[in-house]
Amino acid sequence: MLAFRVVFFGTPEFALPTLDALLASRHPVVAIVTQPDRARGRGQKLSAAPVKARALASEVPVLQPERLKAPSFVQSLRELRPDLGIVAAYGRILTDEVLAIPRLGLINVHASLLPRYRGAAPVHRAIINGETVTGVTIMRVVKALDAGPMLAAKSRAIAIDETSEEVERALARLGATLVLETIDRVAAGTALETFQNEADATYAPRLTKDDGAVDWTMSGDRIHNLIRGLHPWPHAFTFLNGRRIILLRAIFSNGTPSRTPGTIVEAHGDRLTVAAGRGLIHLMELQVEGKRAMKVREFLAGHHAAVGDRLEHRS
What we know:
Layout: E1 6-10, H1 16-23, E2 29-33, E3 38-40, E4 45-47, H2 50-58, E5 62-63, H3 71-79, E6 84-88, H4 96-99, E7 106-110, H5 122-128, E8 133-140, E9 150-157, H6 164-188, H7 220-229, E10 236-240, E11 243-253, E12 264-268, E13 271-275, E14 280-288, E15 294-295, H8 296-302, E16 311-312
Parallel strand pairs: 1-2, 1-6, 2-5, 6-7
Antiparallel strand pairs: 3-4, 7-8, 8-9, 10-11, 10-16, 11-14, 12-13, 13-14, 14-15
Helix pairs in contact: 1-6, 5-7
């Protein structure tokens, strides 16, 4: 079976299983394109994203263009003579010039069942919206955002307490397997492309910190979905006695609250229960801003949180 010269585009941890699968395949990875090193963490130290670190260990050439239109980058890409480009969470819209370089084009590993949840945060938005099924789609890259023809798709259930971190990690592995199968079909000449139905398209815009503000008048299941959908970033949050509290883990129940939404109805031992607009939220792990994460028992031992206190949407 044919072996293709592959250029890989990816940046975060989601891209690693696909990169590892390609590096272990018969297809030579002739270059890895990833975003430039950025300032990260509390100290804002310049550091490489996960794909850069893996690329250096693999000894495959690394390209980190600040501008995809830079003539030096475009020329370097052309000189590699790639047959195929593989994209997994690169984080930038590819230019027409870049799309035209691999002779077989580029295909992308997208973490949703397209055409639903096009965009930057498909897993997070799906969980926030209470979806019970998601998946990965292998699609051809075109200039329009996540709108190219689909070559393969595979679904996966979302468990009721799974976070976006857990689901995304599973989808990354699923996508790595599916993209290799798709490349084999391209090599065999049996790959079929299906156009997306634009009428069914939905979008998953990039997350911001403001997305995490908890409105306690919402139903308990919606708040629960927000908490797990925004884990590990930017996290759901609330305010207690003027302090910002980050909500890391919770479960919900359909009990009938007897207090105003946001009111603490139970606060002892391992239990910190808050009334929602409908149902109850049982907080399990939380973090005072600037401090480390802690379980409820430890939080209650060191912070004032009593029955009748209110958690607020804003400070």
